[in-house]
Amino acid sequence: MGVTDVVKDVEEFFKEAQIELENGKANNDRILIRDSAEKGWNAIVQAVNALCEVLLGRIPKSHYDRRNALREIEKRFPELESLGLYDRYAARNKYMHGEVFYEGNIDIELLQVELEKTRKLIDDIKRVLQQKTC
Asked: Is residue 111 within 8 Å of 35, Cβ to Cβ?
């Protein structure tokens, strides 16, 4: 699968995250709300995988490998360090994947903030991908 296809998947996962959050809120459905966090998290994972493939020539195999790859990217591409990709990835992992999806700690307002931060992270990664593949 090429980077363009992965970016399409990223956008679809993010769109589904938003839809599931709205449906979960409307129906007081905790499972849908938790699934929305996981879909948002998966959008980040796919975006980071695409970034690693383009910049490092490999797709990480685990969350640990992704974190290390993001640290490597920040070292090899100093112009990207100011984006804080590693920190932003780790923060979304902790909240969306860990606390909401796995632990079931649901705070709708905070999840909406996290999804907005997810959107910004995805947009930053897409800009980098566009710059590095053109």
From this structure: no
Q: What is the pLDDT of residues 62-105, one digit of tens each?
A: 999 999 999 999 999 999 999 999 999 999 999 999 999 999 99
The rounded Cα 78 to chain-centroid distance in angstroms is: 21
Domain 3-133: CATH superfamily, name plus number: Nucleotidyltransferases  domain 2 (1.20.120.330)
CA 116 to each of CA 18, 38, 52: distance values in angstroms, whole numbers, following the listed order = 10, 14, 23
Reported as a single tens digit per residue, the pLDDT across 116-127 is 999 999 999 999
Task: Report the alpha-carbon distance of residue 119 to residue 102 in Å, rounded.
Answer: 21
